Amino acid sequence: MKKYLAALTVLLVVLCVSGTATAVSLNSGQLIGTYSGNDPSSDSKDLSGLESIVEAYLGAEDIDLDFYAKVDAPGSSTTEGSGSLSLTYSSENKSGTWTAGTAINLYSVKAGKGYALYWLDDAIASATWATENLTVGKKGNIPAISHLSTWIVKSDGGGSVEPTPDPVTAPTPEPATIALLGFGLIGLACVRRKFQN
């Protein structure tokens, strides 16, 4: 009986002390936020509103963005803009990868009635995308992508881009219920042993 009690105690300690859960995003870059409506994804659209969002997020001034390219789903290559952009799709058009002809600073994923903006601290030319931060309906269903748009910071923008540090993802502790269950089982084992003697 002592062996079983010792094994049960060790098992409970391992369960109570074991790891934590951390949220992982399928998107490259940092989520700036989600917005309703459509992103300003064309050469002719005014980018001042988008620039204000990025400036507020970065705590910087005078960010000057330039629209690079856009791909409409289910297409795989540039549908608008002067740059080269390609998309791949997986998981019912809810995630995939994108590749651009130059390093990108900002991209948006449009799906449903809104879009999500992502900032890339170190501008990169290839990354992953997902519609995981956008939901539709009362059940919060994740929609398929409508389009992906990209922007670059103009080199003559004059503003210094000092991105915020990566957000720290706090670990989620295991529930104390496991410990409570374990102590209850130990108590039952001790009571049973006492009545058997």
Mean pLDDT: 81
What's the total helix number?
3
Rg, Å, rounded: 25 Å
For the biggest sheet, the summary is: 7 strands, antiparallel
- Low-pLDDT ranges: 156-160
Strand content: 25-35%
User: In whole angstroms, how far apart are the ends?
Assistant: 12 Å
Q: Which structural class matches the secondary elements?
A: alpha+beta
Global geometry = elongated
**Count of DSSP E strands?**
7
**Helix-strand pattern, N to C?**
HEHEEEEEEH
What oligomeric state best describes the polypeptide chains here?
single chain
Helix-residue proportion:
10-25%
Features:
7 strands, 24% helix, 3 helices, Ice-binding_C, PEP-CTERM sorting domain-containing protein, 197 residues, signal
Structural features, described:
The protein has helices at residues 2-17, 48-58, 177-196, and strands at residues 30-36, 65-72, 80-81, 85-90, 95-111, 114-130, 145-153. It is an alpha+beta fold. The chain has a domain at 30-153. Strands 1, 2, 3, 4, 5, 6 and 7 form a 7-stranded antiparallel beta sheet that branches. Strand 5 (95-111) and strand 6 form a beta hairpin. Helix 1 runs antiparallel to helix 3 (177-196). The longest helix is centred in the C-terminal third of the chain and has 20 residues, at 177-196. It is elongated and about 85 Å long.
